[in-house]
Every structure is written in structure tokens, then in C-alpha cells.
Amino acid sequence: MRILIGALSCWKYQERRDRCVETWMQEGDKWNGTSPREHTIARSVFLIGVPELQAPELAGRYLLLPGPSDYRSLPQRTRAFCQWAISRDDWDYLFKCDDDTYVSIPRLIRYPLTADYIGAEWAPGVRYASGGAGYFLSRKAAEAVARHLTQKEGPEDVYVRDALASQGIPFTKDQRFVALGNEELRPRANNDLITLHAVPTVPADLFYKSHQECTGLEPPTHLDPNPPLSKRLSPEDLRCLKEGQRQLTRMLKYLFEEVCEPHGIRALAFGGTLIGAVNYGGWIPWDADADMLVHRDDFERFKAQIRASCPADCWYQSRETDPHYKANIEKLRYLHAHYDGADRYPWHGGLQVDIIQFWFENGVFMTSAPDHDATIGARLREEDILPSIELPFDGVRLRGFRDPAAYLRVRYATEPLQSERNVPVEKRYPHEGAIRLGASAADRARYPQLYKAQLYKDQSRPGMKITAYPLYGLAAPLEPSPEGRGWDFLCPCAFEAVWHGGPGAGDVEIRLDEDAPGTPSFVQSLEGEGRLTFYPGYQCKTEAEHALWVRGPINAAKDGAVPLESALDTSIFPGTLTMHWRLTRPGQIVRFAAGERFCTILPYPKAEMTVEVMPFDGGMDGYERALESLAESEGLQGVFERLAAGGAV
């Protein structure tokens, strides 16, 4: 049987979720049910409410469900979980629990699933399964909950029982699911209990004690993080290496936790980064670059998220963004450090996260790495890779292969905790070269646009300025607005867009001219409803008293499309610039020419603006009195005098 686990949670309970992930969820991720007596854990997710959602969204470890994220709304989320689940065919039983429930996975996967609704009473005679202890629902039971649990607030476990009873589905009691646990009443090596509901009186460490006793595992052990290293690494080299690793860790956190996880982009640690996570819980002590995989089907969304949020001290390097770059592996580069000897390549040598695509062909694991055929070939299969597991890496939550040991055996012919012991001391040296802090002279000369902040001043209002930092070499051209106010971004290539009338992002078709330069992804359809999203390729900073006004070109109407305006507070930190247009006529071709203005930016005062409405004062007589008062003012009298004398106004 295939078991799909859902744990009810609220956003504020991150610590509880961390305990689940570190213990039973990670254990469940790697259980593939190879024995005939064992079930398979299809997936384990936290069930979180999001009021703005219209439909469920699966985002990594989270199943986001429409509705509030509070305790009272548990029935609503439970029903939404069942509704989402019955639309899928990758499970046979649901197991619903809470974020403060410990689950013994080795016992759960051997449970005899012979009834539709199985759980434990929290008190004798109540005749319903405790939600905290956890309960099983068959597909038949889940369909009944999805259709007949109508209450939105209240005791979720009671309402589940009522919905099932209305359809003639009985409750099967099994007190091995523990509703009110303690030091003695919990899963241990000498009993057969399956869960522990860690109510407030139960210490959190019972999660970990139960996990160790039920799995027979000791806490994870790693290799010595300070082994002997090559004598070629001087004390200054080691200082720079540690600083470089710190910056790369920040980049990994950005990529995995900000770009991939919230947007459901499938990504995995790879190469030395995966080995470091397994063997050290972080960096291989002499490693100086990072490696990750992104699923081929998610790759364009991955790059779009980076374009919209790239840190100001990094840039994304590919053949599209860098005319000097010839390699197939795309990279996120850190601008302010480089590898010694990197000038042997005719492109940027900043610290790098290598970004490689992966996919599966007939169940075989494939990557776009140039050496894939020689090093991995067809020897790893999808079940070695998925479902991915969470791997801590110096405080960052990476995703890793379901069976990292299989990867080590295939790629390096070694076992976990042994691979680095096999490396001779003199070879414990960064293969990319020692890290040097600061940008190299070659990088500054070859990529001046990355290192020279471009300062643009609004000439009509002295002292108001916008500083624009290009994020990559082929950022959109920028020039003063012909109206004398603000600055305009110009299309780097020509394209046509057609909205076919539907609500989805795929209902907009974008056609680039064949002679477009290497920035075809500066315009995307990501939001639906006929919207185009432009990525000029800059982060902007304004002065303390101003925000950034992002709008369409001034006095430049376009048939079939309207620009959408926004204000971006860039007075404290630089903000990544995006511009949106909306296509208004389904079926009409809208063309943007190369060099055409598509966005204007201006400083916008942050001070609160007030409008004074004068009271009505006697109709036309009141207006006449106001005009007389204006005509008698000292300033206007001076204008009249200069006119009478024939002088300049």
C-alpha cells in the first residue's frame, strides 16, 4: 500500500515542523517499501492554510490549502486535504496527524491496513480517532470526508467521525496510536506503540528519544571538519576560503529557500555539495564552489525567479546573459571574490554555484552535466533520487537524493564517511583554485557594467537621484526620458505577443525575432490574465525621502496593451525592477520593437501628500472674489509691472 501523510500545522509552529522533518519525515522519505510486508510512504506534507488561495498548491514539504491558518479551522483544512488527495492516484491510504505528532515510520509501514477508518480514542468510549494521535483513512473514507465534512470550525476529529458515520463507515480502534503521551507511554524499542502526540506537557526531546529507539539510529555523525589540508593553503588562503564558503552558503540559502522551496521548483544538492552535506553536515573543508540540480521542466521558472530577486552582489551567468561565456553549465556568481588563476578562462571568474538540469528518461536519472555519460551513465534510477530528503548544510535546508549512498557508489566508488578519507592530504585543495577576495582586474575590465554603479539624476529636480545596478551584462539599455523627467528602459530585442483570451500564463504567446540577442527571457508570461512581465535586469536605489515610481513610458500609448504602474520602496535597500503590461484584446498581435521604450522610472516622494478642498462659497460670486484676491497678490502684481515695462517675465 502507498501511504500519503498530512500533518496539520500553522505558520507560527516552525519549531514543531523542524522536529518532524529531522526525525520521522526524513525517515519516511527514504522508505521505498521493497519488502512485500512493507508499505510505501508516497509523500509527507504539512497542511497549511492560506486565505488568499483559490485552490491547493503543493510547494515542496508544504501543501498550501485555501482558508485560514489557525486552530479553529482544522476541519476546513482536513476536508481540503482529502479533496486534494482524491484527485490523485499515487496513494491508497491517508494518514492524518498533527505537527506535534511523532510517527514511528518502521511501524507505520508494517501496519495491517484492513479497515477504512483506524485510530485511537483520546478517552475511553468517545468512539472517534484522536487527530493528534493520527488516524488512517482509506480512499473510500477520504472521499466521504471530502464530500460530507461541512463544518469549517471546531473539533476536526469529531466532525471526521460524523461525516464517516453518515456514510456507514465505522471506526476501528487501535490504542497503539498514542493521544496523550509521556516518558513511558510513547514508541520505544520495548513496545509496539506507533505514534506519540507531544501535547504541551510532553518534553520536545521525547521526539528525538523515540526516534532513536524506534529506528535503532544514533544521532547523525560527520567527519572531522578540521582535517589536515594541503600545505599549499597558507593561513591567508584558509581565511579567504572560509569567507568564500560563507558567501556561497548565503547563495545556497537564497537558491533553495527563497527561489525553489516557496515556488515548488524541484532542486537537489549535487556533486561536492551533496557529499559535504552527507559527510560533514556542511562544506567539504577544502571545497570552494557549490553544485545544484534543477529539474528541466522547472528551469525557466527558476531563472525567472532569479531575475526578479537576484541579490545585488551576485549575477546569473549563462550564454544568454554573457556574450563571453561558452560553457553549458549555468552559474550564479558572487561578484566580489574570485578564484586564483580564473583569468585562464575568457569569462567571469567569481565564486560560483554550478546549476545543472536533471530529468528522467524511462526511469533513468539524467543530467546536463558534460561528464554525465562518463561518470554516472544509466546507473542511477528515479527511485535512487526521489522522493528527495532534507539535508542540513551549515544551517541551510538543502534537498538531497533519497539514497545519497547510491550516488557515492556510482560516481565515486566509495561509501558515505569514507570518500573524503580517500583523498590524499596534498590533494585537499580547491579544484577551482584558491579564493581571492575582491573582484579580479580581468573581471572588472571585461564586465565594467557589473562593477560601476550607474548614477542617473532627474535633471528637472536637483538632488533627486536614482542609482541603477545592472545584474548582468546584457541588461536592457537605459536612457533619459525625452520628456525630461525620469529614465526609460529600452527593449533589447524585438518581439510580438498575443493573448488568446484565457486566464492562464500559457494563454499568452511570445514570439521573439530570429535575430534577437542573447536576452530572450527579459519578457515572460507568468501571472496569467494577459499579463507580460518584463525584467530590465537592474536593481535600483533611491534617496531616503523617495520611493521608485515604475510606470509605462510617458505619452506613449500602445494599441492592445496598457502598462501597469507600481511604487517600489528602494530608499533603504536596492530593489529588483520588474515592469508589467496587460494585453487587452484577445487575438491581437502586439509588437514591441528593438529599442522601443517599455518602462519609465521616476523618484516618488514618500512624504504623505494632502489635498485641501476649498468650501463652496456663493457660486460665481465666490470665484470672482478669489480671482480678485489673486490679482491683488504681490507676486502677480510684480508680473503685471514687468509686462507693462516690456521686460521678461
Task: Describe how the helices and strands are arranged.
Layout: E1 2-8, H1 14-29, E2 40-50, E3 57-59, E4 62-66, H2 74-85, E5 93-98, E6 101-103, H3 105-108, E7 117-119, E8 135-138, H4 139-148, H5 156-166, E9 172-173, E10 177-178, E11 195-197, H6 205-215, H7 235-260, E12 267-269, H8 271-280, E13 290-295, H9 299-309, E14 314-317, E15 330-339, E16 350-361, E17 364-367, H10 372-375, H11 382-385, E18 389-393, E19 396-400, H12 404-412, E20 435-437, H13 441-446, H14 448-451, E21 454-457, E22 465-470, E23 478-480, E24 487-490, E25 495-499, E26 508-512, E27 523-524, E28 531-534, E29 538-542, E30 546-551, E31 561-564, E32 566-568, E33 575-576, E34 579-583, E35 589-592, E36 597-605, H15 620-631, H16 634-644
Parallel strand pairs: 1-2, 1-5, 2-4, 7-9, 10-11, 13-16
Antiparallel strand pairs: 3-4, 5-8, 6-11, 7-8, 12-13, 14-15, 15-16, 15-20, 16-17, 18-19, 21-22, 22-29, 23-24, 24-36, 25-26, 25-35, 27-28, 28-34, 29-33, 30-32, 30-36, 31-34
Helix pairs in contact: 2-4, 2-5, 4-5
